[in-house]
Design a protein that fits this description.
The protein is mainly alpha-helical and about 625 residues long. It contains 24 helices and twelve strands. Helix 3 (about 40-60) runs parallel beside helix 7 (about 140-165), helix 7 runs parallel beside helix 11 and helix 17 (about 495-510) runs antiparallel to helix 20. The longest helix is centred in the first third of the chain and has 26 residues, at about 140-165. It starts with a helix and ends in a 10-residue tail after the last helix.
Length: about 625
């Protein structure tokens, strides 16, 4: 373990033990007697700096990340009474969110939520005391201040995405603060975004361009990280949920002040586009580029087709320091590969209760991916969409993706490479798991309870028959023992930034040349032709990319495909105001208990989602509103 990782983890554990039960209203420092000690020298102050990072690192637990758990990209059984983790995040799409005890409650740090208000208090304490260490150099002091301002901005931003109008914790309360002083008011959404952007603008100039000492500082914030996050912040502020949303036109605080602007501001998209382009320029200046080189570690005889699939897998699971596309990830590694890898060996069945393979992808998510012609399967003139659930036998032409001679669904044939890289399915090739030669590669056998990957006990059943293969390192092995080769879940990748720029540019200027350029960069890595050529040659709607509205739909689908399972869709679908539409239809899987292909490939409903207009924003716990008469409940709750 790297020295900085050990030090940071120790700080996180101490912070979790001492702060996890605190309430957000307690923003008066409780550690006044120890501040002199905490900032007596550089080393002690650095420990406090790491405590400011601690909450950020806790956000890497994806089951508690609203962007990951609430997007319906991955569904989870609600019958497990799970001992692996608290599944409240996954259950939110079932309509189980309440005002009495909100799920993923980041306001009060309950039900899977971390303590954001405590994190903000620590950041303010750091800034208030940064002058005390007498052996802290001026250059390091500037950098630390910039890092803490970034963290302070991000914690506020995280809360804005969930709750909308935010209580801005610009400074801590004094020790003898009155009850009225502690009860702070929420700022409007526009003021909330303006504040976090101002913090980012203050932080960016003093952040390092790159991390020079990777052994001791990897994971700390750089200028290109901050510029990329600022671009995402501005894009979120410009998006329909927050930019002139008529659903919130009458939402005011208890003094009658509007908390949302009812006026759409087109200039917000221009600001977002400019910030995206500036971030791209900085990232590329520091050597970042799309991950395009096939992995060479432990790979034997592999066809060019499969090498392309492995490249698309490795861009997520390769080591951080070896991934030229990774803008930002957190120090904690993704800890759920035992939920994403199907059982493929006889010995693996003995570990089913420990590594249950229960992260399930709905059929609708599998159908999100394009055909191999680069257009949606329901638009492709050559794709047999109406008969997609009929069966077809794997042949030599598709042997790199589908087991030759195995009967599977027609919908699994003639798909784009990201489909094969991201989703495990019955009959699909699963390279790795200890076999490094394509000729002996495993394939998934999922039909019925007697199949290796099929339903076993209640706690070891994938309820749809699709696995998020993207979240499994091909070097991890699920056999008589489970050997995990860890990776860091990206929070931002260059491909995502390219698509963010394309989106903002299309919204501000329409379908200009650069919009196509940056979408097509991402598509080319996936083996697809450009948007215009693909739609012109294969789509039933060839003019779609020529309009802002048509190109908007294309960009949204491109982001959902490219960033699938990375914790982005839950936020994207909210800010676009599209999650209600996605969850208006039943989520389906295959008939997993059927052993014969003709019966297995009959979609069945696994979840009937419940999502209303109110669910775009989190509720504030009722007891908080009772305590603080400056608060009122979010709309429609």
């Amino acid at each position: 373990m790297k020295p900085s990782y050990y030090k940071l983890i120790c700080v996180i554990v101490l912070c979790s033990m001492s702060l996890s039960c605190k309430k957000y209203l307690d923003v008066t420092p409780d550690n006044v007697g120890t501040l002199e000690y905490a900032f007596r020298n550089r080393n002690e102050a650095e420990n406090y700096l790491f405590s400011c990072y601690a909450t950020m690192t806790q956000l890497n637990n994806v089951v508690n990340d609203p962007g990951f758990a609430t997007s319906a990209e991955i569904v989870y059984p609600n019958t497990l009474n799970d001992h692996y983790f608290n599944e409240v995040g996954f259950n939110m799409i079932r309509g189980l969110q309440t005002t009495a005890s909100p799920s993923l409650n980041y306001w009060d740090a309950t039900n899977g939520g971390s303590s954001m208000f405590q994190a903000l208090r620590r950041c303010n304490t750091m800034l208030e005391n940064i002058d005390k260490p007498i052996d802290l150099s001026a250059s390091e002091k500037k950098r630390w201040i910039a890092e803490v301002k970034f963290l302070k901005a991000y914690y506020h931003y995280f809360m804005i995405r969930l709750y909308g109008p935010m209580i801005l914790i610009k400074d801590n309360n004094v020790v003898n603060a009155s009850t009225d002083q502690v009860k702070r008011k929420r700022s409007s959404v526009d003021d909330s975004f303006a504040y976090v952007i101002s913090l980012m603008d203050e932080a960016i100039p003093d952040l390092p361009s790159v991390i020079e000492s990777q052994a001791t500082e990897f994971g700390r914030i750089t200028k290109f990280i901050a510029m990329s996050v600022k671009a995402e912040m501005l894009t979120t502020a410009a998006s329909p949920l927050f930019n002139g949303n008529p659903d919130y036109a009458n939402y005011k605080d208890n003094d009658g002040k509007p908390l949302f602007s009812s006026t759409y501001d087109a200039n917000k998209w221009k600001l977002a586009a400019d910030a995206c382009k500036a971030a791209i320029t900085e990232c590329e200046a520091q050597g970042l580029h799309l991950y395009t080189t096939p992995p060479t570690v432990s790979v034997g005889n592999v066809s060019d087709k499969l090498k392309k699939v492995l490249t698309l897998q490795a861009m997520i699971t390769d080591k951080w320091e070896q991934n030229p596309e990774l803008i930002w990830a957190l120090n904690y590694t993704f800890g759920y590969q035992g939920f994403t890898i199907p059982r493929m060996t006889d010995k693996s069945e003995s570990l089913a209760s420990t590594y249950p393979s229960t992260f399930a992808v709905p059929i609708s998510m599998g159908e999100m991916y394009y055909s191999n012609n680069g257009v949606p399967i329901n638009e492709d003139k050559t794709f047999d969409y109406n008969n997609r659930y009929n069966t077809q036998v794997g042949d030599d032409a598709n042997a790199s993706y589908i087991k030759s001679g195995y009967t599977t669904a027609k919908v699994h044939f003639n798909r784009e490479l990201r489909f094969y890289a991201n989703i495990g399915f019955d009959g699909g090739i699963w390279f790795g798991n200890g076999k490094i030669d394509e000729s002996s590669a495993y394939y998934v056998q999922a039909r019925g309870p007697y199949a290796l990957a099929g339903p076993k006990s209640l706690s070891a059943t994938n309820i749809t028959g699709y696995w998020p293969k993207k979240l499994a390192n091909y070097l991890s092995v699920y056999d008589d023992v489970f050997t995990s080769v860890d990776f860091h879940m990206p929070r931002m990748r260059l491909a995502g930034l390219y698509l963010l720029y394309a989106e903002a540019l299309n919204e501000s200027q329409g379908p200009v040349a650069d919009v196509y350029t940056y979408i097509d960069k991402v598509r080319a890595r996936a083996g697809l032709d450009g948007v215009q050529a693909s739609w012109a040659n294969f789509s039933k709607n060839p003019a779609k990319p020529s309009t802002k509205e048509g190109l908007r739909d294309i960009i949204h689908q491109e982001r959902r495909i490219e960033l699938a399972f990375e914790g982005q869709a839950g936020y994207d679908l909210r800010r676009w105001k599209e999650l209600q539409g996605v969850l208006s239809r039943p989520l389906q899987g295959w008939s997993i208990n059927e052993g014969e292909a003709v019966n297995y490939y009959r979609p069945q409903t696994v979840i009937t989602p419940v999502f209303g207009l109110k669910d775009y924003l989190w509720p504030i716990q009722t007891s908080d509103i009772v305590v603080d008469n400056n608060l009122n409940q979010n709309p429609y709750w």
